[in-house]
Amino acid sequence: MIRKLAMSAAFCLLPLSQAMAESWFEVEVFLFERNQPSAEEWPEQTRLPAFAKGRDLISPVVIPQDTSLVPCSEEERLVDSLRCDAMDIQIASFAPSYPNPMPVKVVAPSQVVAEPGAGALLMDSTKLQFNDAVQQLSRESGITPLLHMSWQQAMQPRHASTPVRLFGGENFADRFTAMGTLRPPLDPVMEGGASTNAFGLAITSDSAQSAAPDTGSNGADPQVLIASDDTGVSGLQQPENGLDGTSMLRNRPPAPVWQLDGLLNIYLSHYLYIETDLVLRTPGTRKVAVEDEALQSQSYGQSDNQAAGASTAKTDQQIAFEEQPFLFAIPLTQNRRVRSGQVHYFDHPKLGMVIQIRKMTQPTGAVDVEEPSTEPEGDDTPEADVINQQQNQD
């Protein structure tokens, strides 16, 4: 009886052990912009992917590592807490310096070996097999290469998969916000009174600080408030060396606004699936309603009753439209069932993507999955995407 129970328990645990076994694949992708004219109208309401959900394989290899910005140890903090507080401000205000434009080819500096349980790993240049095709496409008129890279990852079901963050091309942050509107000019006080410290970070001179009015917390820059809340700068005592955390954070360059940005999710659900949530940003113009300034000045200082009457008397002639620069975010959102070994092309009027998922030598403990030999009847493309909502879990 005991032997039967043991055998039954072993068979019950077998599906669980199989489910826990990983199956690794190698992925190569090439993305490019198509500069041909298009008759399509792109949305003016910007919807951005959930970038924070993606695994960033690009930043670690394109951003120079600053080894001087190392947090203090507990022993160092006990000896010189003021210096350590200043170092905390330095680290909190550190802004990574990306190349602009980004390099098209992003590769690991050396070969890496996949290990069970690890996340996606960027591959070195020896793993790139699209080089000839990339060169041929790049020579075509109207094609601008944006990103070419390869990585290895363990394939998971939809609910457990982690997208890979893809970005590249030009950084528009000096002109536009992430939502596409024109970036407002810098505070002239900050422009005129900024200098840099030994770490290359901007600080504000005493004269510039004294010239700026004390607006209090209600008049502060909301971006600075967010940064200070996240880093604890607002609660730190200002160091004697003149470093001011809020001033340094205010002088941080804005977050990058990449020409290509988004998420690529690959998961395994009997078949392999490629799920894209990408945007291609392209400058243009849009019409914006602008109220006549003369009418605004007339209504200024009126009583509530007068203002209400003036509001009801407005006509379409009082609203003017003007062309304003705008950074469109053109979406590429698809979900496609694929087979390993095949080269797939995702077509789009403005953005092209060539991708291949290849079988590879499995790491120790991983298993080589067998894909179904026949195609299923009908379209089993999921209704909801894992990148944004993670519904319809397997």
UniProtKB/TrEMBL annotation:
<feature type="region of interest" description="Disordered">
    <location>
        <begin position="364"/>
        <end position="394"/>
    </location>
</feature>
<protein>
    <recommendedName>
        <fullName>Peptidoglycan-binding protein CsiV</fullName>
    </recommendedName>
</protein>
<feature type="signal peptide">
    <location>
        <begin position="1"/>
        <end position="21"/>
    </location>
</feature>
<keyword id="KW-0732">Signal</keyword>
<dbReference type="Pfam" id="PF10972">
    <property type="entry name" value="CsiV"/>
</dbReference>
<feature type="region of interest" description="Disordered">
    <location>
        <begin position="295"/>
        <end position="315"/>
    </location>
</feature>
<dbReference type="InterPro" id="IPR021241">
    <property type="entry name" value="CsiV"/>
</dbReference>
<feature type="compositionally biased region" description="Acidic residues">
    <location>
        <begin position="368"/>
        <end position="383"/>
    </location>
</feature>
